[in-house]
Amino acid sequence: MNIFRQPPNRIILICCLTAALLRLLYLLEQSQTSVLFFQPTLDEQEMVLTAQALLRGEGFGEEPLFKAPLYPVMVAASQVFFGEGWFWGLRVLQHLGGVLVVAMGVDVAGRLVGDDKSRRDLAGLITGMTLALYAPLIRLENRLVLDFTVALFQSAMVWAGVRWLTMKDHESHGNRLLIATGCFGALAWLTRPTITPVLPLFGLLMVFLKPADVEKRRLRRTVAAALFFLPTALAMTTVVARNAIVGREAMLLPWQGGYNLYQANRSGASGRYFVQDTFADSSTGNPTSDLMLQGYRQAVADGERPAVADEKLYAAVNDFWTERLLAEIREHPGEWLALMVRKGVYLVSAREIFNFEDFGLHKKDSMILRWLPLSFGWLWPLALASLALPVCMDPAARRVRWLLWGYLLLMGGAIALVFVSGRLRMPLAFPAAVLAGGGVSGAMELFRRRSAWRWRTMAPPLALFGLGLIMSWGDWWGVRSEQVAHHDLARLSGAAWRAGRYDLALDYALQAENLAPDYPRLPILKAQALFSLERTDEAEVLYLRAMEEQPRDAAPAFNLGMIAYDAHEDPERALHFFQAALRRQPAHTRALAFQALCFLQLGDLDAAAQSIQALQQMEAEPSFLTRVAVMALLRTANHDRAAQDYYDRWLAPLDENVLRELEHEVEKVLRRTKTRRE
């Protein structure tokens, strides 16, 4: 008797159509209402910039990988395939991936509960509709970050592993299923290497749960484990080879790992998410790499660490932060253990905190998500209660249950070692939803029994369900009452400003101010919106305040320079602020370009030429502003050899339309210079 028949196609069809309809409506809604749809920020911006570098032929840079490489490759491929519509195209693909997760959930739930048709249908329907209506998953699919693809690939790995575990000995496609399971695991690893400790443990658990003849058990398990690990081993070998050849350091994991572990486990860490302590611009869109290098170089300058050769720099940076973490744990072991317990509770919380994004804010602003009640606070209690509910008495079905629980605990532990947040814990939604669906179907079976022991049998799962509710909905360590929406409102303000919606940018900034008046980013956000709304005097006061309150941030000084340069046409005062910005961030190329223009207007041609030479060393492809500075210098001093070389390399190949636009801007610069001299 085959107890592992799939649920009827109509169950999969109903769940997938529901999921697809909700996702289509949400996609259309976000394209019309969200300032983030066409304005990537923070991690999203980093992925987009990396993808653009790949398309320019620059690869991942001349260093070991800073982050996992797969998602930027996917972004680059979508930009090639969809062209200007890639913002839509990539999100459509991710939403289709969400529909696939629903279908896989229905299939695994059917294999969990056995041959009883009504139970199979019920478990599949509950699991499929749970995943279809799970609002945090829908929201994450709409984001241009790697977290959903991690959840997709890991869910596919679990699905393929369950299919292999429940197949019959006479079926011939077992090896193909094992390799497919390993391929999904390798894709997940290439998207987020945090699962490095999970993959071997999951593979061993899957292999040892599979029954085999006593005589051939060791050989079969060895072959099965080898087939599962082969794709991941190939992926790891490729990464190490790339790092050794291109980055000159044969590193297995991205060099961001040690820093993340430190920030997630240091003394005083919350463990839920990490908010950067600086807002400086970065060439990657995310200042984490700059902060890592700054901390390491400061330790070298202070004599805490010996200097290393360039070919060992990034391994040394990673080791530095890892050693700082281990030192913190050794010095405060009790505090670290308490933090891990706290993370474990936060991991199952009903509160959805997406690192820098407050899910409640986006749910409230969405007509689609607003009425979807499911959260992890329901998945976890139902999954926990399933431990005491009958799933199926067949041994193979019980093995599916232990595989799901093993994965849930292994993955939860790996997540808890880093940041516990809604988007990082998303891979847990798939097994939790399947276990919840199987548990509810088991509870329905108990209620159908005409037994005097029915209520006594229900006592343990009800107790576990109540414990799960307490863990998920209790305000442990203030996580459910914590206000983090101001971080996201600040991000929305920046995105609205870049989109040219200055009134909306100011509104978001004022909303953030109402929640957190002392939030350090607010003066800059309000000032840039006010400046764009031509309320220059108000903006200048706020930038001056921000410059004092944030001595490491280059943005206030740069924007004060822009006010002096554009609004007041005062190159001397503008130069003062641009130089202040460069002291705070020496690689601020826009400040360097405007410094060159200020020197030109002040008549210091040698200083302008030096600024342009510095830009030539920093920019692989010159910006429009840099080209303006070069042309202005050439028009002012044709004898300058460095500027002429720069012109021959970067300006001569440009077409007539671009040159005409450049000439127009250069005329404005020269007109200001002439007016000042007169």
Keywords:
single chain, 678 residues, mainly alpha, two-stranded antiparallel sheet, 30 helices, 2 strands, 1% strand, disordered N terminus
Question: Mind explaining what this structure looks like?
Answer:
With 678 residues, the protein is mostly helical. Helix content is 69%, strand content 1%. It has helices at 9-33, 43-55, 70-82, 86-113, 117-132, 135-141, 147-165, 174-191, 198-209, 217-245, 257-265, 288-301, 313-331, 333-347, 359-364, 376-385, 395-417, 429-448, 454-473, 485-498, 502-515, 522-532, 536-549, 555-567, 571-584, 589-602, 605-618, 624-636, 641-650, 656-677, and strands spanning 353-354, 357-358. A hairpin with a 2-residue loop joins strand 1 (353-354) and strand 2. Helix 9 (198-209) runs antiparallel to helix 17, helix 17 packs antiparallel against helix 18 (429-448) and helix 24 (555-567) packs antiparallel against helix 25. The termini are far apart.
